[in-house]
Amino acid sequence: MNKLSDRLNRLSYSQTFVMSNKAREMKAAGIDVISLTLGEPDFDVPANIKQAAFDAINQNFSHYSPVPGFLELRQAIAKKLKRDNHLDYKPTQICISNGAKQSILNVLAAVVNDGDEVILPAPYWVSYDEMVKMMGGNSVFIETNIDTEFKMTAEQLEAAITPKTKVILYSSPCNPSGSYYTKDELEKIANVVAKYPYVTIISDEIYEYINYDGKHTSIAEFPQVYEQTAVINGMSKAFAMTGWRIGYSACPEWLAKACDKVQGQMTSGANTVAQRASITGLETDPSEYHFMVESFEKRRNLVFELIKDIPGFKVNLPKAAFYFFPDISYYIGKTIDGVLINNSDDFAMFLLEKSHVACVGGVSFGDANCIRFSYAASEEELKEAMSRIRKALTEAEIH
């Protein structure tokens, strides 16, 4: 008798964590592994945010917060959304969650019924499809490729919408591709979605600040879809606060109330100390933290020059986030040093075992032809990693 639920059995483990755990095991065995798997800034939390956390502890912010979060934090988010995104949200439209991942789950739980369709432009973040399964929905994938910077068109989107479509879920800037949708592209998408008022947009904007063109646009800026859009963001990436687990959603009133209802039965309010510290982070001028973005851009440029020399890789220059998503389809179906490569997950495992460089195969991102490297690592590690991969593939027997 299977004691586990059918819902759980439908889920897969995150390939990101599978590969990072494999890398840790090899390191523990004394193998010199360079891990480029996790999407985590390698900076420490800025000093003013840490001090705000100490102050919160000393001020005894140790009791339950309101389910949607402290009013002061929701007010700070509302000001941030107005300042940076030209968006008007009241604190009652904002829900603070245990990371942006929970914010997305709240929205999905609020609107998706069993059998509803959720459109995912591929590649997508690894958890999106699993989240849809968890809520009883069915994912509908829109295929893209490196030649279009992994972005769907408005025409593709309209062709994918059916009477069963309930949600369109995407990230811009995108994990894993590092691409983002321009204002013109988003306006065309907004015009399509506005024709279907029963469809909700979930716009994951967690990498908003890590944008080397400085041209982030939120689809919620377009009034024709404001009442259909949930904006998702958080503190993890731009503020290097991954372990603090503070994310948020900004939604129309009807959806914000639904998210509060879901979260009230799931986790209640997020960590109180992290919430208070987040107020300081959001109220600080973003330029104070721009040194991290400048460092990521420098590393991106370094890796781009090195990765272009790796045989069989097709790569574009990502404009945001901290990932490369090269197309390695040249190797699929081939045997490398006796190892048959059926897809990009096989290729990622080959690189780990042969080069001792850990990356993530693209299968769980919705693209079996690509692999993802995070360049949130030191320049020395990045140089060595690209050198190892180039050496392994240059010297390998390939059939």
Question: How would you summarize the topology of this molecule?
Answer:
Elements: H1 6-10, H2 15-28, E1 34-35, H3 47-58, H4 71-85, E2 94-97, H5 100-111, E3 117-122, H6 126-134, E4 138-143, H7 154-160, E5 165-171, H8 183-193, E6 200-204, E7 229-234, E8 247-250, H9 253-266, H10 272-283, H11 290-307, E9 323-324, E10 335-336, E11 339-340, H12 344-355, E12 357-358, E13 360-361, E14 371-374, H13 379-395
Parallel strand pairs: 1-12, 3-4, 3-5, 5-6, 6-7
Antiparallel strand pairs: 2-8, 7-8, 9-14, 10-11, 13-14
Helix pairs in contact: 3-10, 4-10, 5-9, 7-8, 11-13
Walk me through this protein's architecture.
It is a single chain. The chain is an alpha/beta fold and 399 residues long. It has two domains: 144 residues, Aspartate Aminotransferase, domain 1 (Alpha-Beta Complex); 225 residues, Type I PLP-dependent aspartate aminotransferase-like (Major domain) (Aspartate Aminotransferase, domain 2, 3-Layer(aba) Sandwich), CATH 3.40.640. The chain contains 13 helices and 14 strands. The strands form four sheets. The chain has a seven-stranded mixed sheet, with helices on both faces. Strands 9-14-13 form a three-stranded antiparallel sheet. Helix 7 packs parallel to helix 8 and helix 11 packs parallel to helix 13. The model has no long low-confidence stretch (mean pLDDT 96).
